[in-house]
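Work Package 4 report. The design task specified in the project plan requires that, given a folded chain encoded as structure tokens, an amino acid be chosen for each position. We show below one input record used in the internal validation round.
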């Protein structure tokens, strides 16, 4: 009875809150969702406003110019885009403007940057004192938790700030911002804490270790601050003392090992697989639910933020392994082990522990593949040149590093532009559907020609996906599609010559009259003609065939 009374009171409170919310004065959020009867109509609307937007951006803005988007709705500019999935929309944040969103993003970024700087200091201090007073496993037991806690602080603060401060309109953009912040700032504090030990000048090792100068000893004396720094700033070369680079394998490399071991044991195994919160929810909270339906809802854990968390851990270790594997090749099998275990842990969690994640766009995957991985590749090249040149005692001029950095910037700008064009092209697949509505009323030959063209030409398939295709993959796909189309063309020619020899001879006569331009069109026409009555009148009248192909 007490449980029923408590639920009744909560129901009355919720009803009163809904009544107050409904009676409160609401303002327009500036967003509207328009549902079209046919998909091609929606595509036509998007193309129309997209053309107006491109026109306004291309022409010069002067006195007296009018943005034609202002003519549609009370002098306000209309931005027409594809509506996200209903589960992807954060409805409570639609009332916030773009300026408010950017302001909150800047605030949360500054807060995460402050946390990252503090965690970097803690990592450097922990590694520094662990190196100076190393006691084996005892030192590892207290230094590794410090490094783990420094990274955990970042991805504990990021979702809280995303929920309480940021004003993202969709979960896709929310997950994307979370992924960027967690990956970038964790990489920032790890890389800075690792590279910082290249600038510390250590005293020479004891006399009994002089014959091992090329192999750093596990415990060095304190740094000699009276000596010159390891780095000598010059405009032509990056001058690092060879002893400092050798000592880095004791100090800076220890940071990387602690990061990999900590994420593998504490985060991947304990937090993601064991999940103490799962046991608390399932065996302490869920049994207290008054109904079976409520218990089922509590038993399956929410997976709203699961994907960005898992993406950030995988990207972090991929970037670390790519960047520092020239100095520490052991990072590659370590990263492979983490990715292998991540696959099985994610499979178990998504099938056995969590509810299905909300439907979002592929922005998170796009950001992972097209932005983070190129940065990791350029980091790999940069540190490979640095460490190998120091090992070979062949200094590399600074312009080489500057050129590599400039090339990385050019690649990132190029990728951003291509993605921008790809997003503008998102309505083109539907554009073909719009033309398909008119094709339904046209001849069967035109309809079959369009269908075959979309199946044998790469550009039609690339327009149906939103992912950016790199140039090398684009070239390989073009070759595959061209080979497939050529094989299909030869097979269809053989079929047409054996079944309908009159049509082939008729088309050969047209080919001689029409030239090479008609040769490629003829092969497509023969391959698309599956019914004799479709080809027979066209082969009898060559001029009709040419006109049909032009249409």
């Amino acid at each position: 009875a007490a449980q029923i009374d408590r639920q009744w009171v909560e129901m009355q409170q919720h009803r009163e809150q809904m009544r107050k919310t409904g009676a409160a004065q609401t303002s327009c959020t500036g967003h509207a969702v328009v549902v079209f009867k046919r998909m091609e109509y929606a595509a036509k609307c998007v193309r129309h406003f997209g053309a107006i937007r491109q026109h306004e951006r291309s022409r010069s803005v002067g006195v007296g110019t009018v943005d034609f988007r202002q003519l549609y709705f009370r002098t306000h500019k209309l931005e027409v885009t594809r509506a996200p999935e209903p589960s992807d929309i954060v409805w409570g944040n639609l009332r916030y403007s773009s300026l408010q969103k950017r302001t909150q993003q800047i605030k949360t970024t500054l807060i995460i940057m402050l946390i990252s700087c503090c965690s970097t200091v803690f990592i450097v201090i922990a590694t520094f004192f662990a190196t100076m007073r190393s006691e084996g496993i005892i030192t590892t037991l207290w230094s590794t938790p410090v490094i783990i806690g420094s990274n955990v602080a970042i991805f504990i603060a990021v979702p809280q700030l995303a929920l309480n401060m940021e004003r993202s309109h969709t979960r896709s953009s929310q997950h994307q911002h979370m992924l960027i912040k967690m990956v970038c700032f964790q990489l920032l504090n790890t890389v800075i804490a690792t590279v910082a030990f290249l600038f510390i000048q250590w005293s020479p090792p004891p006399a009994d270790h002089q014959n091992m100068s090329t192999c750093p000893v596990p415990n060095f004396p304190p740094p000699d601050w009276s000596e010159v720094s390891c780095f000598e700033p010059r405009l032509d070369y990056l001058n690092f003392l060879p002893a400092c680079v050798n000592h880095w394998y004791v100090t800076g490399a220890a940071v990387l090992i602690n990061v990999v071991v900590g994420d593998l044991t504490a985060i991947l195994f304990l937090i993601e697989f064991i999940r103490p919160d799962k046991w608390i929810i399932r065996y302490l909270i869920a049994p207290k639910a008054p109904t079976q339906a409520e218990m089922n809802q509590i038993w399956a854990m929410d997976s709203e933020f699961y994907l960005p968390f898992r993406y950030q851990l995988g990207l972090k270790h991929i970037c670390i392994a790519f960047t520092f594997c020239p100095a520490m090749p052991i990072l590659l099998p370590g990263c492979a082990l983490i990715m292998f275990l991540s696959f099985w842990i994610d499979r178990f969690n998504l099938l056995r522990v969590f509810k299905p994640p909300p439907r979002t766009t592929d922005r998170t995957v796009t950001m992972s593949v097209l932005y983070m991985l190129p940065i990791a590749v350029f980091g790999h090249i940069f540190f490979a040149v640095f460490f190998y040149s120091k090992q070979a005692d062949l200094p590399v001029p600074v312009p080489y590093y500057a050129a590599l950095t400039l090339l990385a910037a050019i690649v990132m700008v190029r990728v951003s532009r291509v993605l921008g064009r790809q997003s503008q092209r998102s309505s083109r697949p539907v554009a073909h559907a719009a033309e398909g509505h008119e094709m339904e009323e046209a001849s069967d030959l035109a309809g079959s020609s369009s269908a075959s063209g979309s199946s044998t030409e790469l550009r039609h398939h690339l327009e149906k996906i939103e992912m950016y295709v790199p140039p090398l993959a684009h070239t390989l796909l073009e070759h595959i599609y061209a080979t497939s189309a050529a094989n299909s063309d030869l097979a269809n020619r053989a079929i047409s010559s054996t079944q309908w020899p009159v049509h082939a001879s008729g088309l050969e006569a047209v080919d001689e009259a029409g030239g090479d331009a008609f040769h490629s069109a003829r092969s497509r026409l023969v391959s698309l003609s599956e019914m004799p009555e479709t080809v027979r009148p066209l082969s009898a009248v060559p001029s009709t065939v040419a006109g049909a192909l032009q249409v």
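Residues 94-274+305-396 form one domain. Validation will be extended to a larger panel in the next phase.
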